[in-house]
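Quick illustration, no need to memorize.
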Amino acid sequence: MLIKLLENCDFETFKDISNSMGYIFNSEKWLKIYDNISLYGIYDNQQKLVGGFHIYNGKQYSLKHLNNPPYAPHIGLFFENKSQNKSNFQSYTKSIIELVAEFIDTLPSKIITLAIPPIFKDMQPFIWKNFKVIPNYTYQINLNQLSLEDIQNNFSPERRNDIKKAIKDGVETKLNHDNEIVKKLILKTFSRKEKAVNDELLNKILFEFADETNSFSFVSYKNNLPSAAAFCIYTKQRAYYLLGGYDNANKHQGAGASAVWECMKHAKNLGVEYFDFEGSMIPAVEKYFRGFGGDLVTYFTINKAPMPIEIALKFIKRSIF
């Protein structure tokens, strides 16, 4: 078996296998929003494509940095495993992860920071290759197994009260059809937090990628003016809460929660299986997401840099190096 840059003739197979697993971040339309992304195919001994992944080629501190694409939760690793026997299934999975670890270790880069999809838990091959394996967390809600009443009953009292207060105060949350509104609220939030935003990439997501087949958003209005927004992308398997924002000059404590709640309800009505908050390691954001009562799900990042760079990064990125 081997890994190599995906051949053009195999892209349709790449899409078909990945789409069957619900990986919207491997869809052709999503991948087109990036300029610096490499697609890799996993090929069996007969040169048949059985899986793949993508890596974003970026820069950090003027050094070549292999990373997840911006706004994507992981590298979209997928592969077919048709083994019926449990031991064989685990052995085949291990062999693929070993192959991926060996391949990534050979890529020319000064910094590697890549997230692996939550479905894969066996990170031993990366540890054996001296990668630092760091647990990360997201919250997911199984929309199929729970009624809307049960989902809301799992909310924290604070989150339920926020939504009740929004209703009481006349905040109206609507399905949105104008992503300019979403963009303005997102930019207000980034500006308030003094964080840079890639305007070009944000435009590509909201105005080139997004359509009614792959995304939806809800906007909460206070005094008939936009107060908060939540934007999601989805397949039948999973909806991701990708972007959100609010207007500090017209805020309401329940506006954001109401927008997220309407997104959950809409996803369930569309027949989506899971709602995924896409993770956050920022304490305040994690607490907010936790209030929606999802299941805590672990996924891993694999990190590596040459020793002098790693020592320097320990002062900047202590949580991952």
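The chain has two domains: 2-136+299-313, 144-272.
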